[in-house]
Request: fold
Amino acid sequence: MAPTKEETASSIQSRSSSPELIASTAGTALPYATRSAMHLKGLVPSGVENFDMQEQRVLEQLQLKSTNIEKYIFLSWIRTTNINLFYRLVLHNLKEIAPIIYTPTVGKACQEYSHIYPFLAPPNAVDGLYIPITEVDNIDEIISNYRESIEGDEPEITVITDGSRILGLGDLGMNGMGIPVGKLQLYVAAAGLHPDRCLPIVLDFGTDTEQYLQDPLYLGIRQKRPDDDTFYAAADKVITALHKAFPNMFIQFEDFSTDHAFGLLDKWRNKIL
Reply:
């Protein structure tokens, strides 16, 4: 017999707040009794420490990194492997860490995003949506795939960009994903949003920057940006599908080219949140 809606809901827990997740990422902070219950005895060092000591260790390693981009990669790995430790670290050290996870370091990270992407998270870790213009007709499938990956924590906010005007750096294409990721981290740390309910999105609609089109390591689609009619038709399909799937989700447009930014606002600002 299939589970009832209530049974399904009760079985779904937040990725960052479920007891199982907290225990599995607590590492050396796990007490001996919990280690025995989770069959971890002998699989971790014998010392038992508190979370403050774990933060000290991360800060020590962070300070050993010689460049801000190395610090960015290191902190991204912490976030995607131990989200609770990451946000404890950010909240307790916001003045030091904010310039690494966002401006100014995020600009450099975006420029190099295709080169550092494999080192930001474990393989197949889901950290947002990459929506190429060649797949907008399959947007419902993409959203379904995302729903499966988040195990029930539906997003309440998305920051979405097409990478066409990133900071003062211009058209970075798919590499602009660093902006939605970074901005949502600040929203969690400074505004108290739930990390599991934040959805970074990049519309991979091509790039006019020849450097990326010729870069063998570039991870976006290799084509020039579309004309306005094609752009708006594709964007409309994505936004309509997102609003249908998550009707209460706040949508923030970020770092679009000026003409497209105003075009999107004119069409959508009085129709959806």
DSSP finds 14 helices and four strands in the chain. Residues 1-14 have pLDDT under 50 and may be disordered. The longest strand covers residues 198-204. The radius of gyration is 20 Å.
